[in-house]
Amino acid sequence: MRSVDELLAEARHLSPRDQRQLRRKLASLKASGGKPEGPYASLLALAGTGHTDFPDASTRKGKHLAVAYAPKRARK
After folding, report:
1. CA distance to 57, 58, 59, per residue, from 65 (Å)
2. What residues contact 64, with CB distance under 8 A and at least 6 apart?
3. The pLDDT value given to residue 36
4. 44 contacts 36 by C-beta, under 8 angstroms
5. How is the chain split into domains, by residue range?
6. pLDDT (tens digit, 0 to 9) for every residue of the chain, 76 residues total?
7. Which residues contact 36 (CB under 8 A, 6 or more apart)?
8. Which of 2, 3, 10, 19 is the most buried (most CB within 10 A)?
9. Which residues, in sequence order, are CB contacts of 19 under 8 Å at separation 6+?
10. Which pLDDT value is given to residue 13?
């Protein structure tokens, strides 16, 4: 596989018309790549972008699991 630098050097030797065509094709590749499709596309696009300011059990595992993992005390 050729490096990006080699591809750019080769692209500089193209005619202006071919360069425009290459730019259009690359732009359409970028625009269409990686976008989810279907009825849940808008929700999938937002996946992983949410953030909350409130801690939950997963952020404070030590507090919530301390009792479960604490050594058992001998009963008298």
Report:
1. 9, 10, 11
2. 57
3. 62
4. yes
5. 1-47
6. 578 889 889 999 999 999 999 998 888 876 666 666 788 888 887 887 777 777 776 677 777 677 777 777 765 5
7. 44, 45
8. 19
9. 11
10. 94
pLDDT score of 74: 60
What is the token pair recorded at 7? 């591809």
Indicate if the alpha-carbon torsion angle 32, 35, 39, 45 is positive or negative.
negative
Q: What is the 3-state secondary structure (H, E, C) of the chain?
A: CCCHHHHHHHHHCCCHHHHHHHHHHHHHHHHHCCCCCCCCHHHHHCCCCCCCCCCCCCCCHHHHHHHHHCCCCCCC
